[in-house]
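Key result, reporting period 2: structure in, sequence out.
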C-alpha cells in the first residue's frame, strides 16, 4: 500500500502559449476538453485500483490554465478524486488561475465546489513587463482577480511573480511586491525566468545576456523582494516562496520533503510506489490510450525512474536545502536509519567550509551566501 496523501491534476490548456513557457499546454481547448476529462477520469480510476492510497490532505490543480475549466468541470474532477481516494476534512485544495480568464461567478463556483486556495499567475504589475512576457492579461486584470478572489471567499491566496525578465527594472519588482503586500495576499512565489530549450524566448534571448537583467541585477531584485517581504511580516520559507504565518503551501511542501504524490493528466509527474513517473506529453496519445476499450496506465507513462534508497537520500538533501529550515538530522535519521553526516559528510563539509551552508540546532540549511548560489548547493547532491 502506498502512502500518497497528495494529488496533482494537470489541466494542459491555455488561451495562448506564453513565449517563455515549456510546460505541457495547448491552445484550442474546445477541440479536446470533453475527451480529455474522460481520459483524466479513467486515469484516476485506474490509479486508485493499481496504487490505492489516500485519504488526500492536499489536491492541486495546475497547468496550463485550470481556470479555463468551468466550476462544474473542476468540481467533477474533484469529486472523482474524492470518490477514488477520499479527501480529508480540512484538506488544502488549490486551483491555479490566470487573471485573464477569471470571472466573479467562476471564482464563487470554484469556492463552492470545494477549492479553498487559489494561486494566481500575476507575474508583474507592470503592463510593459507583462507585454514583454506575452501574457494575456494586464496588471489591472491581475489586481481585479485578486480582489474578486478575496470577495468570493478565498482567504488563502497565492500570487506568482517573475524575476529577471526582459526590460524589468528594480522599480518594477518593488512596485509589484508592494502592491501584493497592500492587497494582503498571504502567499507569494517569486521565480526567476529560465530560458528553456524549445521556447521562443530561448531562441530570442539565449546567448544575448545584454537583453536581460544581469546576474547582479537579478540578485539585487531577489534580495530586495526578500527584504520587503520580511519587513511586511512574511516568512521566507522556501528559496522562492514567502508566506504569512499559517499560509505556507502544504502541497508544495510534499515535493520539498520528497514525499509521494499522485500526478494525473497529460504531462503530469507523480511519485508513487518508489518510482518517479512522467506522463505522456502528447495530448492525442494520452486521450487515445485512456479512452480505448482496455486502457492501460503503462501506455501513458513515458518516463519511469525507480528511486532506490540512495537516490531517495540524495533527493531529501537536494530538495530539503530549498527550504530555509533545511534538513533535520533527526528526521533524516528516522527516515533512513542513518545520519546525513554519515552518508554526505564530504559534501556537507565542503559546503560548510565554503560558507554556503550552516548547521544549528540539529539542522543543515543554506547560509545567506548559499541563498544566492542555491543551484550549486543542490548540485552537490546530484549523483
Ligand atoms: S499561462 Fe502559464 S502554463 Fe499557460 S503558456 Fe503561459 S506560462 Fe505556460
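The corresponding designed sequence is given below.
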Amino acid at each position: 500500500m502506498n502512502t500518497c496523501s497528495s494529488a496533482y491534476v494537470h489541466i494542459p490548456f491555455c488561451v495562448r502559449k506564453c513565449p517563455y513557457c515549456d510546460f505541457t499546454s495547448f491552445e484550442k481547448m474546445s477541440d479536446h476538453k470533453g475527451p480529455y476529462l474522460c481520459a483524466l477520469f479513467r486515469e484516476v480510476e485506474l490509479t486508485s485500483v493499481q496504487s490505492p492510497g489516500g485519504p488526500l490532505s492536499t489536491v492541486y490543480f495546475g497547468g496550463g490554465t485550470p481556470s479555463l475549466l468551468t466550476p462544474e468541470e473542476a468540481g467533477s474532477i474533484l469529486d472523482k478524486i474524492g470518490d477514488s481516494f477520499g479527501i480529508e476534512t480540512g484538506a488544502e485544495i488549490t486551483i491555479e488561475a490566470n487573471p485573464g480568464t477569471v470571472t466573479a461567478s467562476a471564482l464563487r463556483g470554484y469556492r463552492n465546489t470545494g477549492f479553498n486556495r487559489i494561486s494566481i499567475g500575476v507575474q508583474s504589475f507592470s503592463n510593459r513587463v507583462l507585454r514583454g512576457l506575452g501574457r494575456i492579461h494586464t496588471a489591472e486584470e491581475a489586481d481585479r482577480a485578486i480582489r474578486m478572489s478575496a470577495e468570493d471567499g478565498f482567504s488563502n491566496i497565492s500570487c506568482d511573480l517573475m524575476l529577471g525578465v526582459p526590460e524589468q527594472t528594480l522599480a518594477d519588482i518593488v512596485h509589484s511586491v508592494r502592491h501584493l503586500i497592500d492587497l494582503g495576499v498571504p502567499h507569494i512565489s517569486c521565480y526567476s525566468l529560465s530560458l528553456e530549450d524549445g521556447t521562443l524566448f530561448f531562441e530570442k534571448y539565449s546567448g544575448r545576456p545584454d537583453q536581460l537583467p544581469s546576474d547582479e541585477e537579478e540578485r539585487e531584485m531577489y534580495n530586495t523582494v526578500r527584504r520587503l517581504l520580511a519587513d511586511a511580516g512574511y516568512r521566507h520559507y522556501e528559496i522562492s516562496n514567502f508566506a504569512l504565518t499559517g499560509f505556507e503551501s502544504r502541497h508544495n511542501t510534499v515535493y520539498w520533503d520528497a514525499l509521494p504524490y499522485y500526478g494525473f493528466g497529460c504531462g503530469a509527474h507523480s511519485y508513487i510506489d518508489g518510482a518517479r513517473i512522467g506522463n505522456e506529453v502528447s495530448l492525442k496519445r494520452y486521450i487515445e490510450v485512456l479512452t480505448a476499450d482496455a486502457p492501460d496506465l503503462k501506455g501513458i507513462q513515458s518516463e519511469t525512474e525507480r528511486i532506490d534508497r540512495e537516490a531517495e537520500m540524495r533527493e531529501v538533501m537536494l530538495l530539503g536545502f530549498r527550504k530555509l529550515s533545511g534538513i533535520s538530522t533527526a528526521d533524516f535519521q528516522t527516515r533512513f536509519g542513518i545520519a546525513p553526516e554519515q552518508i554526505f559528510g564530504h559534501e556537507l563539509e565542503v559546503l560548510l567550509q565554503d560558507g554556503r551552508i550552516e548547521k544549528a540546532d540539529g539542522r543543515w540549511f543554506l547560509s545567506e551566501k548559499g541563498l544566492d548560489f542555491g543551484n550549486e548547493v543542490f548540485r552537490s547532491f546530484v549523483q
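The chain has a mean pLDDT of 96. The pocket of iron/sulfur cluster is lined by residues 14, 17-18, 21, 23, 25, 63-65, 98, 121 (CB under 6 Å). This case is discussed further under Risks and Mitigation.
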